[in-house]
Specification:
α1 packs across α7, α8 runs parallel beside α12 and α9 runs antiparallel to α10. It is globular, with a radius of gyration of 19 Å. It is of the alpha/beta class. The model has no long low-confidence stretch (mean pLDDT 94). It has a 7-stranded parallel beta sheet, sandwiched between helices. A 3-stranded mixed beta sheet has the order 7-8-10.
Length: 297
Amino acid sequence: MILVVGATGLLGSEICRRLAARNHQIRALVRTTSAPGRLEAVRACGAELVTGDLKDSGSLKAAVRGATAIISTASSTLSRQPGDGIETVDLRGQLNLVEAARAAGVSRFIFVSFRNAADVQYPLTVAKRKIEQAIPDLPHYTIIQASWFMEVWLSPALGFDHPNARARIYGAGHNKISWISFPNVAEFCVASVENPAAERKIIEIGGPEPLSPLEVVRIFEEQSGRQFQVEHVPEETLRAQMESAADSLPKSFAGLMLQYARGDSIDMGPVLKQFPIPLTSVRDYARRILGAQAASA
């Protein structure tokens, strides 16, 4: 039985679909406030739903009971609900989960984290690293440090407004990033359940080709046949936002944007020798979403 924590989120729901395709037994930790449509999507994978909350350590006992592995993708960054925050979910909540796993004798823990190649410190990085430091006490673990999700960072929600041919670029836009597609991250998580190469490892993952944000804009221009209007947010502005933010979530988003500005390039060759997973390129992503846009117009 594999417990997926964050199962109703973007990444967690994809992990559930892929586990189901491999005939794994799935248990999904869900909250009473989870959207009905997302609950139904997880239930459709054949998952057993168990109600609980990372902030409530008592509720995790039933969730972890009988589980042989845990895959945790949960974070307050994209699906914040009342009471959620970096400290309550990404730090103390995840520590509650690690402790529950240890107490229940769960043999394998797979934790989705992210890279911080630029070494910018903010509340989310502090939380992620503390969980990474706690996990090696468990018998078997894998830490997935992913680069930037293209479906998130190359979307209108964060300023990459491809439907309107506008792009907000953090920093000068010249530093390369190994943009990765979230289904590829899901595949690495599922592979880590089965592949001995994932045993007690930190696996750093990105897409097939590091590209600067300005190179990404050019790809979208080529695919759409439209010239993009580009807006730059200087690094000095991002640092000022990070330092002045009173709440840990806006402080962390400013830190993430500053980290993006500094780039994150990964050579995936060595990883792909052990995990031969086909990777989605930015061009593939642009072609798909622009095609979907055109079809719905």
